[in-house]
Structures are given as structure tokens and as C-alpha cells.
Specification:
Strands 10-4-3-12-11 form a five-stranded parallel sheet. Strands 16-15-14-17-18 form a five-stranded parallel sheet, sandwiched between helices. By secondary structure, it is an alpha/beta fold. It is 38% helix and 14% strand. Helix 10 crosses helix 18. The chain contains 19 helices and 18 strands.
Length: 475
């Protein structure tokens, strides 16, 4: 009996050890698996609070995404020399402290410029504050000072592979750039390029930098941080700024192989029945191997997405009116049917009440104006079969509920939801704009704000992926 008891004791201990190892295999992933497996945030941070924000849980720091980037195979941390590695291009003066829409539009063109120069793009964090702190204050709430780019997007921009047969060098992280280049960095003053440009158009900026970089033999080329990024707010704010560059940019792997991160796609998958209920069984995005952006992010039939900025936009829209601003470059591409020309009569920093009202209707529409525009759009051929509405917004909950009630009063919608209805985990909460953008990108019809960079990124993803141009509209 003692032998039998000992035998069962041994079996029990062995089974417990095997079960523990199995759990470790399932839940503690290697760094290389971050892009396909989203870990639970409880493993990543302790959720402490801080005296600076009493009673508020501190945001995640996305440590596993930093680890994934650190472990990219093109990062040869222990190499005795790095001089045989590809040429690099680093832009330390990239924008910081702005919303994701502003940062993303810049990242896309920075990566495109590096690709055209045949230099490895040095990617960087989505940075709110670069003072070394982990957390920053935003309207009295803590937010991460930095979010690793791989928590938001995937693809060649963040070190993923280029399409088969493309010999372009793989992107590397900022951390690796400083490790590999050290004191071998060649800094290019911005004025050496921009003082000779014929315009602020993206095509002229790109050509200017390509011409300059072609004369730089150094492996480690860097744009002077003091001058700001190559593509700044002036370039993006010029309505014709992307017109000439767009065809080549849209065909480049920067766009054709752009992807959203597993974290963002999981937020989309988990909320699919909220914003666009499925009629048939459809595999979740996170279960499908990545091929191209156009094949992955196909149209969601029946879905109308409305992008409605609120909050600080009341003052911003008034500012746009006072300076007679045009739509942003991404929102003024030639294929788009809705154009906006500033009404005559405006001054330098001021405008007439009538003109301000025109701007407000397009920039900050009231609920009756929203309904009127929706009625116009649903009558179009591109809008046939629409039955679900999703509202991308930062508006207050009370206002969103009023808008939803007004839309229900139209008597034509099967399902109405908003950004406020999404169920997101703690990590997804701080990349929620990207989840919204993925939803808008795949809508059958999208109505956006022509002065919004978030709208602009949705617009170019739709156009680059072959969505019909007349399905993308503005207020």
C-alpha cells in the first residue's frame, strides 16, 4: 500500500509540474510572438496609482511591445562592428505631443522618404512627452508618455518584411540606431534642403531630401532635430500638397503593406457585433495571416461611419474660419468628390459671421445638420444597402446619445453605435483612435471632417485599398 501511495504521489507531483509548464507556455509568450498574440495586461504592470492622480489607475507601459522591437532579427546587438549593415535615416525632430492622427500622417511620409532613399527607416515611439517620464498629464488624467509604434501598427514601417523580391533594408528602432551608429552620425541641417525648395508640396520636399541624401555616403544620416521634421504642418495643411506625390506613395509598400497591430485588430474583432453585426460566419482578423492591406481590410457592407470631432474643435473650427483654411492635403486628393473652397470676404485672422457659419457647418455640424448631410449621402449609389451606423467621436456621452436618438428617428437604421459603446481592454484604451480608424477605413461609406488628420488617414487608406472614391465624403 505504501508503494501504491508513493506512486500516486509521484504521479500527482509530475502532473502538477506538467500543468504548470503548459500554463507557462500558453500565457508567457516569447518576444517574437507579440505581433500575433496579445498578452493580458495584468502580466505587464502592477496597476498602481500615483499621488499625482489620486484614485486613478496608471496606464499601461506596453513593455512587451518594446521587447518585441528590441528583439527584431535585423538588430545585431552583439556584432563587433555595424559598418557592414545597411544605410540608415533618422529623423529625431519628429512631431511629439499631438494626437495619433497628426503623428501617423507624418510617420507614413517619413517611412516613404527612407524607402525611396534606400535607407533603413529608423522608427520611433508615438511620443507625447520625451522628458524621460513614464506618464504625462492630459486634462487631469494620466496617459503613457510613450507608446511603442508596434502597439499601433505592423508592417515594414516597424521592421516587418518588405514584399517578396523587394531589396529595401529593414526598418530599425531608434534604440538600435543609437547603438549601431554611436558617434558616426552625419547630421544634415534642414535648411540645406528646405531653403532651396520651390514649394511646401510633399513631392518637392521628397525630391529635395532624396537629392541631398544621394550625396551623403555616410551610413548613419540624420535630419537636424532643431529644424523640425521634413514634412510639417505646413505641408499637410496645403490642400494641393499631396497631389503630385500621391500616385507613387499609394503604390509603395508603405501603403500596400501597412497593417494595424494585433492589439488594434483584437479591439476591432471583439467589438465587431457592436458596430457591424455579421450575417454570416466571418473569421476574426487576428486569425488571418497578413498578406496585403487591400486584401485584409476589405469593405464592411452596410456600414456607414460618421467622424464627428467635438471637445476642443469648437475653438479650432473658429480658428480655421478666421484664417480661411482649406481642407488638409490628404482630404483634398483629386479623386475625392467633395471639395471645399473658402468663401470670399475673409480677412487675415478674421472672417464674416456668414463665412464662419459656413465653416461651422462643415467642421462642427449640429445634429440637424448631421441628419441633413446623412440624408444627402444615403441617396447616392455608393450608399445602397446601408443599414448600420457607427459614430467615431470624442463627444460627450450626453451629446452622443442625443445624436443616436435623432438617427433612430430617421427610421432606416438597424444598428447604431459609437466610440462610447466599444468594450476595450486597458491597453486598447490608449490606442482607441487606431481602433476607430480601422472601423472607418472599412466602412462602405465614410463621412469625415476635411480638417481632421484622423479623417485624412482613414481617407488615404480607403483610396489606396481601392475603395470607390465616391464612398468617401465630408460634412
Amino acid at each position: 500500500m505504501g508503494f501504491v501511495a508513493r506512486r500516486y504521489l509521484v504521479f500527482g507531483i509530475s502532473g502538477f509540474v506538467l500543468f504548470t509548464l503548459l500554463l507557462r507556455t500558453l500565457y508567457v509568450r516569447q518576444d517574437s510572438a507579440v505581433q500575433t498574440t496579445v498578452q493580458t495586461s495584468s502580466l505587464l504592470y502592477d496597476g498602481d496609482t500615483s499621488p499625482r492622480w489620486p484614485g486613478r489607475r496608471l496606464p499601461p507601459l506596453y513593455r512587451q511591445y518594446h521587447q518585441y522591437e528590441h528583439g527584431l532579427p535585423q538588430h545585431h546587438w552583439n556584432a563587433p562592428s555595424h559598418e557592414s549593415e545597411p544605410k540608415y535615416f533618422w529623423i529625431p525632430g519628429h512631431s511629439k505631443g499631438s494626437g495619433w492622427g497628426n503623428i501617423m500622417q507624418e510617420i507614413l511620409l517619413d517611412a516613404y522618404l527612407s524607402y525611396k532613399a534606400n535607407r533603413a527607416f529608423v522608427f520611433y515611439n508615438y511620443t507625447w512627452n520625451d522628458d524621460g517620464s513614464d506618464y504625462s498629464d492630459y486634462n487631469g488624467k494620466p496617459i503613457p508618455s510613450r507608446v511603442p509604434l508596434s502597439a499601433l501598427i505592423r508592417g515594414p514601417i516597424v521592421g516587418g518584411p518588405w514584399p517578396e523580391g523587394d531589396p529595401a533594408p529593414l526598418a530599425v528602432s531608434e534604440e538600435y540606431w543609437y547603438h549601431a551608429c554611436g558617434d558616426r552620425r552625419r547630421v544634415i541641417p534642414r535648411k540645406e534642403v528646405h531653403d532651396h525648395l520651390p514649394s511646401w508640396f510633399a513631392s518637392d520636399i521628397t525630391k529635395g531630401w532624396l537629392d541631398k541624401l544621394s550625396t551623403v555616403p555616410d551610413q548613419c544620416a540624420e535630419a537636424d532635430a532643431d529644424g523640425g521634421p521634413p514634412y510639417d504642418w505646413v505641408a499637410f495643411g496645403e490642400k494641393d500638397g499631396m497631389r503630385e506625390l500621391w500616385p507613387d506613395f499609394a503604390r509603395s509598400p508603405i501603403m500596400t503593406h501597412f497593417g494595424w497591430s494585433a492589439l488594434v485588430e483584437l479591439g476591432f474583432d471583439n467589438n465587431r457585433e457592436v458596430f457591424s453585426p455579421t450575417a454570416t460566419l466571418e473569421p476574426p482578423l487576428t486569425s488571418v495571416p497578413f498578406t496585403t492591406s487591400a486584401e485584409r481590410y476589405t469593405e464592411l457592407p452596410g456600414l456607414l461611419v460618421l467622424h464627428l470631432r467635438r471637445g476642443d474643435y469648437e475653438r479650432h473650427c473658429e480658428h480655421l474660419a478666421n484664417w480661411s483654411s482649406t481642407y488638409l492635403a490628404y482630404n483634398a486628393l483629386p479623386a475625392l468628390p467633395d471639395r471645399f473652397e473658402p468663401p470670399p470676404g475673409g480677412g487675415w485672422g478674421t472672417n464674416t459671421p456668414e463665412n464662419v457659419a459656413v465653416y461651422m457647418r462643415h467642421c462642427l455640424p449640429t445634429i440637424p445638420q448631421i441628419l441633413a448631410r446623412v440624408e444627402e449621402v444615403v441617396a447616392l449609389d455608393a450608399a445602397r444597402g446601408l443599414e448600420n451606423v457607427y459614430i467615431m467621436t470624442n463627444g460627450a456621452l450626453e451629446w452622443v446619445e442625443q445624436l443616436k436618438a435623432a438617427l433612430r428617428g430617421m427610421g432606416r437604421w438597424r444598428n447604431i453605435a459609437s466610440s462610447r459603446d466599444l468594450v476595450l481592454n486597458w491597453e486598447q484604451k490608449y490606442v482607441a483612435q487606431a481602433v476607430d480608424m480601422l472601423i472607418g477605413q472599412r466602412a462602405q461609406v465614410f463621412i469625415g471632417n476635411g480638417w481632421s488628420s484622423l479623417t485624412g488617414n482613414v481617407v488615404i487608406m480607403r483610396l489606396a485599398n481601392g475603395f470607390r472614391a465616391d464612398s468617401t465624403r465630408f460634412w
